[in-house]
Each structure stands twice: as C-alpha cells, then as structure tokens.
Amino acid sequence: MGLLVAVGVPAIQIGYVILVEHLLSLLPARTQRTLRPGLWLAPALAFLATFLIYPAVYTVYLSVLDARSAAFVGVRNYVFAFTNREMLIALRNNLLWLVCFTGLTVGAGLLLAVLTDRVRYEAAAKSIIFLPMAISFVAASVIWKFVYEFRPAGAPQIGVLNAALTALLPGFRPVAWLVNLLTNNLALITVGVWVWTGFCLVILSAALKGIPAELLEAARVDGATEWQVFRRLVLPSLSPTIAVVATTMVIFALKAFDVVYVMTNGNFNTEVIANRMYKEMFTSRDFGRASAIAVLLFGATVPIMIANIRRFRQQEAIR
Amino acid sequence: MAQALQPLRATLRRAPLHVVLLGLCALWLVPTVGLLISSFRPPRLVPVSGWWTALVPPYQFTLQNYRQVLDAYSMGRSFLNSLFITIPATIIPVIVAAYAAYAFAWMRFRGQEVLFTIVVGSLVIPLQMTLIPVLRLFTALGLAGTFPAVWLAHTGYGLPFAIYLLRNFLGALPRDLLESAAIDGAAPLTVFVRLILPLSVPAIASLVIFQFLWVWNDLLVALIYVGGAPQVAPMTVTVSHLVSSLGQNWQLLTAAAFISMVLPLAVFFSLQQFFVRGILAGAVKG
C-alpha cells in the first residue's frame, strides 16, 4: 500500500502533464499557446481554490450563523468574541505574544548576528541557535516543560531552571513557572523565542554580510566607535530586513497554538486565540463562534498581507 | 614588554564578546541536552535527582525507556504514520508547484499578475480560516481520519510558499538560455524536463526540506483531520497525548520526544545549507 502510493501519486502527476502536452500537440500552435498556461496551472489552482480560497470565504459566511450553521445570528458570534472572559484573556495574551515574542526573537537574532559575525566559530554558533528550528513545537514543549519542572522548596529540584536559581540565589523559592500567573505567559513565549530566534539570526546575518565592508572600515578609520557604526550604519542598512523578519514573527505570534495546547492547554490565564478556536470547534462544537474567532485572526493578518503584496509589486517593478 | 602584551590585551578586550556568545549558545543547548540525557536514565532516578547528576560517575544509563515507549505507547506505529504522512505530503505539493511556477515564470497569459498576487496574498492566510469547511468537505467525502486527507490538506497549505519560492527562482534563470531552446523548436515539456528541472535542483532541494520539516513537525493539521485515531496519528499527536496522560513520567516523555526529533535533526545536520538557502529565498510562510 505504502509503495503503491509512493510510486502511484507522482506517476499520476507526471502522467497529467504528459497527457496535457500530448493533447495540446494535436491542436494548432496558436490555440496551444492560449491553453497551455491554464493547463499547467490547473492542479495548483484547484488546490488553492479548494483548500484556501473557498474555505476562507465559507468561514466568513459560517461566522454569522449559529452553532450548527442552521440560523442567521448576525454579529452575535463577534460580540461573543470580544466580550467573553476567556476570549478577552486570549486577546490580551496574543497581544503579549505579539510584543514580547516579536521583540525578543528579532532582538536576539540581531544581537546574535552581530556577535557571530566577529568570531571564528561563527558557523558552529549559528548551527546551535538554529537547531531548534528542526524540532517540532510539540517536542520543544516537552523539552521546556522539563526545564520548568517544579518541586516544593526543600525537595531536590529536577527542573534545570529551578535547580539553577536555587543553587545560585540564596533564599530563592522554586517557582511553578507554568502555573504562576506572573510568569506562565512569558514561560510559554520563551519556548517560541527559543525555536524562532535561529530563523531571525539566519536572515539578519545574511543581510549583515551584504553591507559593504569598506563602508564600515571607512567609518572606523574616521574614528567612529563600534556603537556609532552599529547605530548609524548597520541598523539603517538592516532596517528593511528587520521589517520583513518582524512581520513574519508577528504572523507566528498571532497564530501561536502548539506550545499553548501542549504545555498548559490555555489554563491559568494562558489562553490564546488559536487554541480558543480549537476548543470552540471541537469541545463546544460551536462552528459559528469558532468561525468568528478565525475571521478575527484573519483580520489581524490582513495588514501584513497587504504589506507583502505591496513589497512584492515593488520587487517586480525593479526586475 | 608593551609590545608582547598587545595580543593579550586584544584577547582580553574581546573576552566579553566570547562570554556573551558562548553563554547564549549554552543557554540554547542545555534544554535539549537535558532531554537527551533524561531519556537514557533509569526510571527510579529521574524523579529524585536532576539529569545533570548523571554526568558524574557512577554512570547509570539504560535503553529501557525507549523500548517501553516504542512498544507500549505506540511510538513505533506513530513513527511509521509520520513517515507515511510526510513523504506524499512533501512530494505532491513540490510537483504541483513546479508546474505552476513554470507557467508563472515562463509563459505569458491573461490574468497572470492577478493570479500571482493571489498566491502572494494566500501566503499568510491563517489555517484556522480553512479548518471547518475543509473538515466538512473531508467528512462528506469519507476522507476524515485518513492519510489522503492530510496529504491533500498539506498540499493545499504548502502550495503558496512552494509556488512563490520556485517561481522567484525560475524567474531569475537566464532568459537567453530558455529563448534559444524555444527557437531550436524544443517542446515546452522538453524544456521543462531537460532544462528547468536540472537548473532548479537547489531550489527544489530547499523546498523539499522545508515542506518535509513543516509536515513532520505539524500538530494542528494532523489534530484536525486525523483526530485521535491512534492507527493514523503521527508522532506530534501521540506525544501531545502522552504529555497529558504520562504527566510526570519524564523518562518516557523525553524518550518519546527524542524519537520524534531524530529524523528532522538528521535532515537538519546533513542538509542545513539547503534549509538556510530556502529561508533566505523569501520565507513569509503563513
């Protein structure tokens, strides 16, 4: 069965173009030129329409219907999305994710890009920071749940964070990082930062290397301090790249799901929008509310979508 | 004397740089090292002592945890499921995207710009916008809870980025090369197979790694479309269930998590440069 699929599916796909080209070759050259692009695009367009465009439109429609999609309820689901207590916590937390996750990943990525640029073990250091990118958020959640493991004061701490702090700070009382209302959201965001900083590092580091070395040397020769070089030359040249990286991080902050689902499932005020939507969909079976929450999430990404399209248009104009 | 001290002084001045950088690297590595070591420790020691105590003699390590999660907690089954989900869900979108990218980059047609703008726009559509309608569709077709549902969904979700990446790469290929091939009367299919595909191997390699890691590490799509059914659940779903059911059995949880990390880590270490190249080629995946 497995082998059949592994061979069969690509065979069908390859067969498709061969068939298309064979049929086209029977037609006059002009007709061929008109029909060919559509036929090469057809499989992709069919997938995009079925799995992205049509469902997105349909979800907007479902968001004004009731739980079982039977009756029109107007904006009731949206009123719920902005007034329900759990939803308000989720909105607050996503804002926290937006600010802290984006700030920390981009900040740490920038710092590490500058630092690694100056040492001989650059490649090794980058690999270490980049490594978590290969790990699933589920595995990362297990890794960090173990880091945050809490035992009451006096008992041997088996979580490395509480153990290190107890050993280093006299009088430190172990903290239940994922339960404590002051620390738990930041504890979750830390996991996201640990995974995604490598992504920011790789992109920012490549951009940093694109700045002409003579430019920086000239400034240093003229007596500029390292900080001035960074502030006046490096940072301005990197700012377009920082903007791109930051928008990507914003999208991930908005859609944060796996870490929260696995580590706390939104308990102790750690709820986020995406997990709320999952719960409305599967626990409460309220498709109206779940759809309204999804539309809310989509609405937050629309400005980014527009910015991406603008940037793409500009790039195309230069080509 | 002062001359002899010069290199030493330079080293000292750079010391803070090394301390900060090596400190950050250690910070990034320690959590994973802790997981790896704990997964090899005997069950009776894990709850009573930190994993770092295992670094000094007497060394006590065991494979028992791995045996247990593979047999009793269906991690073996899940590993195969993950493979069975990931391989087709990587191959299908890459082929579909290659056709579309070829059309976008090297054919002229009406509506080309509008269509590609839609592709760029759909890069950031949150999956949440699609879950309910697609699940209904799969249920109506009898596909919910099956492998093909996950393959199709991942193909749809992965396509915008795949088309975007490949089209940008193909669009940057030298124009003369392809035009001379067209003048020589080569059929479009021949140009695609003999010229385009060989030239785009680096881009396709990046894309394959990207899609592979994305699907292998995905939780949400698997959770929605295969649900809890253990006979089709990939490792991410199984491990997330174990987190709630095993609770404090850290030696088992860490072993299970490590099994789920082995393959992506191997891919990462052997093909890191392609992965990095893919990210640099414009990663705005949603």
Automatic annotation (TrEMBL), chain B:
It is a multi-pass membrane protein. Residues 79-271 form the ABC transmembrane type-1 domain. SUPFAM superfamilies: MetI-like. InterPro entries: MetI-like, MetI-like_sf. It is found in: Cell membrane. GO terms for biological process: transmembrane transport. Keywords: Cell membrane, Membrane, Transmembrane, Transmembrane helix, Transport. Gene3D superfamilies: MetI-like (1.10.3720.10). GO terms for cellular component: plasma membrane. Its main location: membrane. The chain crosses the membrane at residues 20-40, 79-102, 114-138, 150-170, 191-216, 250-271. Belongs to the binding-protein-dependent transport system permease family. PANTHER family: ABC TRANSPORTER PERMEASE PROTEIN MG189-RELATED-RELATED, OSMOPROTECTIVE COMPOUNDS UPTAKE PERMEASE PROTEIN GGTD. This is Carbohydrate ABC transporter permease. It comes from Candidatus Segetimicrobium genomatis.
